[in-house]
Design a protein that fits this description.
Distance between the termini: 54 Å
CATH class: Mainly Alpha
CATH architecture: Orthogonal Bundle
Number of strands: 0
Strand content: under 5%
CATH superfamily: MetI-like
Shape: elongated
Helix content: over 70%
Number of helices: 9
CATH topology: MetI-like fold
Order of helices and strands: HHHHHHHHH
Radius of gyration: 21 Å
Structural class: mainly alpha
Length: 217
């Protein structure tokens, strides 16, 4: 019987590859979006403007303090009541951008805050504007602190793409649930799902470990 189920699973393996592609697509777009938004928010959060810091702090606290699946439901089911109708795929991207940017914001803010105050003072004394100070003095040093946890966060974001299956996005986890209906061998099906997630996550895990070793030297 196991051999029969395995044969059936191999027959629909291309379906899993399609789900893997959707997962990779969501992950790639989300990582780019989260990184851009997260860096901007992180710079604001580490700055001196008290009002903006407080607003970003409330945003980060809310996102980090609520389950991601609840955020997905709010975007997909509640926003349409306010006139913002989204299909499953863009709703998933928006939810990932909101959640991921909050975590990356904290990583970036922590990295910038780790730079000694004297570096800011020296950059100011050199006549650089605030943006020039960030671009040429602060961020190059802060990246040594930011990069390892940032790549680690990327791995978590890739795995969090599985949550968007609850709104019908046909990504890898959703494919697994659909397959279990046809092949009632859950361990076999979701072992395959896990293996495919591992394929796209493991290179980032290796990169994170490498960066941690390199930056600690």
């Amino acid at each position: 019987m196991m051999a029969f189920y395995f044969g059936k699973l191999m027959e629909i393996f291309p379906f899993f590859l399609q789900g893997l592609w959707v997962t990779a697509e969501i992950a790639f777009i989300s990582l780019v979006t989260c990184t851009l938004i997260g860096f901007v928010l992180g710079i604001v959060r580490s700055g001196n403007h008290k009002l903006l810091k407080r607003i970003v702090g409330i945003y980060v606290a809310f996102v980090r303090g609520t389950p991601f699946v609840v955020q997905v439901f709010i975007i997909f089911f509640i926003l349409p009541e306010w006139g913002m109708q989204l299909t499953a795929f863009p709703a998933a991207l928006l939810a990932m951008a909101i959640m991921g940017s909050a975590f990356i914001c904290e990583i970036v803010a922590g990295g910038i805050s780790s730079i000694p105050k004297g570096q800011w003072e020296a950059a100011t004394a050199s006549g650089l504007s605030v943006l020039q100070q960030l671009r040429w003095v602060i961020l190059p040093q802060a990246m040594k602190v930011i990069l390892p946890p940032l790549v680690g966060q990327y791995v978590l974001l890739i795995k969090d793409t599985s949550v968007v299956s609850v709104i019908g996005v046909m990504e890898l986890t959703r494919v697994g649930w659909v397959t279990v209906v046809r092949i009632p061998e859950g361990l076999m099906v979701f072992s395959l799902v896990g293996a495919l997630y591992f394929v796209i996550s493991y290179p980032l895990i290796l990169l994170s470990n490498y960066l941690e070793r390199k930056m600690s030297v």
